[in-house]
Specification:
Number of helices: 4
Radius of gyration: 17 Å
CATH superfamily: NagB/RpiA/CoA transferase-like
Strand content: 15-25%
CATH architecture: 3-Layer(aba) Sandwich
CATH class: Alpha Beta
Helix content: 10-25%
Order of helices and strands: HHEHEEEEEEEEHEEE
Distance between the termini: 26 Å
Strand order of the largest sheet: 6-3-2-1-7-10-11-12
Mean pLDDT: 86
Length: about 230
């Protein structure tokens, strides 16, 4: 079993290296155009109006940028939450991540008064975490995190995905650990968020090598539209 796990990890590492290189070769214009297309697909989904509490990541490098979606959601007064991953790991080294409510973008796209959220600012400070990713910053006297099961949908970054809903992340295990309660075999929670992967089409592969702790996605959205994983 040990050799099999090591083989899976090595396979994952090779896929990450290959697809990160492909993603990094995208131009800034490519990223902008594809990101805008993806955000449009999300907003145009028939069930988008039913999502009131959503978790969104802040892009790093050439990842799909959801700033456009975040800005529109804030304008619509939806509750938006961004991940904070600099919580100390537990004794068993399980990665920890919480989602905190935000009321603005770390780098505003536009400043038109017509596009400002009417919600009073909850968090208007941002900082770089240990990976150089923007995350909301708050003082110890203010706590704006949400219990994960209360979120309607979480939009997750990824390095690779397949048509069975397999997801390959950066390797930190934060999303897998945080949303482990969403696995089908976990019957304790009757409510859970939709897990939605966000990626470019170039990140689609035939099969993602999975380990026991890896979670699967309910949907994936790319510049070409929505994909419902084949669970048969």
């Amino acid at each position: 079993m040990g050799n099999n796990i090591n083989n899976i990890k090595q396979h994952k590492a090779k896929i990450r290296q290959s697809l990160r290189t492909s993603r990094n070769n995208l131009t800034k214009q490519d990223v902008t155009e594809k990101s805008l297309a993806i955000c449009r697909h999300i907003k145009n989904h028939s069930n988008f109006n039913l999502i009131n509490k959503l978790g969104l990541y802040l892009a790093h490098g050439r990842e799909v940028k959801l700033n456009y979606l975040l800005q529109d959601c804030l304008t619509l007064n939806k509750e938006c939450y961004a991940p904070v991953i600099n919580y100390p790991r537990a004794v068993n080294h399980i990665p920890k991540m919480k989602f905190h409510r935000v009321s603005c973008l770390p780098h505003p796209i536009i400043s038109s008064k017509n596009n400002q959220s009417k919600m009073k600012p909850l968090i208007h400070l941002w900082r770089k975490n240990i990976y150089g990713i923007d995350e909301p910053y708050q003082t110890p006297s203010i706590d704006t995190y949400i219990d994960m099961w209360k979120i309607d949908a979480v939009f997750m970054p990824l390095v690779a995905f397949d048509e069975q809903g397999g997801r390959l992340g950066m390797g930190g295990g934060y999303y897998d650990a945080t949303f482990s309660f969403c696995r089908a075999e976990n019957k304790r929670f009757t409510k859970r968020p939709l897990l939605i992967g966000v990626a470019y089409e170039l990140q689609r592969i035939k099969s993602v090598p999975l380990e026991a702790e890896d979670i699967k996605m309910d949907w994936v959205v790319t510049e070409n539209g929505w994909m419902k994983p084949n669970t048969n």
